[in-house]
Specification:
single chain, mainly alpha
Length: 89
């Protein structure tokens, strides 16, 4: 995304349609898979499971949140690296 901002500054702060499309595409490619799994599967499961396992609601919620955050960033980092490999700009 910072590459897109550099391109925007290079063309004197004009946001063209192609830059907008590339930015939206990059956002979906980088955060789409991680957000999908995080919102629909992992976070609800972790926020339910860890308080039950630890028998402590506040601690379980914190551990569940941390576990969900880690599992969100893992596919996000992989998607970012794959995007950079296949969509060189």
């Amino acid at each position: 995304m910072f590459k897109d901002l550099k391109k925007q500054k290079e063309i004197h702060n004009k946001i063209t349609f192609s830059i907008l499309i590339k930015t939206v595409r990059n956002l979906f490619l980088e955060f789409g898979p991680g957000e999908y799994f995080d919102s629909l599967i992992i976070r609800p499961f972790a926020m339910y499971l860890f308080p039950k396992l630890l028998h402590n609601l506040p601690l379980g919620l914190v551990v569940g949140k941390l576990a969900a955050d880690i599992t969100f960033y893992f596919p996000t980092i992989i998607a970012y690296e794959l995007k950079n490999r296949f969509f060189k700009e």
